[in-house]
Amino acid sequence: MKSMPSRAQDTSLFELHAEVCKIFSHPKRLQIIEALRDTELTVSEVIAKLNIPKANVSQHLAVLRQKKVVATRREGLNIYYRIANPKIIQACDLMRQVLLEQLKEGERLAKRLKA
User: Fold this and answer.
1) Fewer beta carbons below 10 Å: N end or C end of the chain?
2) What is the pLDDT of residues 38-56, one digit of tens each?
3) Which class is domain 16-114?
4) How far apart are CA 87 and CA 69, in angstroms?
5) What are the domain boundaries of the chain?
6) C-alpha angle with apex 46: 30 to 85, nearest 5 degrees?
7) How far apart are CA 45 and CA 68, in angstroms?
8) What is the DSSP letter of 41?
């Protein structure tokens, strides 16, 4: 039988959860995650695909790597970035679905108010 986590463990887990969620609070990081959805890319490829300055891409990738959202592999002079765990993509997709549903509901409400 599984034991219930203590209150202190609960608090620690919520703190970790909040820290992870902070990673997903920047639109550019979300764009990078989406670009890496089905492939691995070098910094140069991310820059070309998203038209984001190199300094920004490097900074965001460093944060994503530090928090284990992306993983890397080296091939010659190139470092390739990929999503570390496919559940990250699932979580982003789920959140996007929630947001789209909220937008649709807002549109329905606005139409009702106009009528």
Assistant:
1) N
2) 999 999 999 999 999 999 9
3) mainly alpha
4) 10
5) 16-114
6) 50
7) 20
8) B
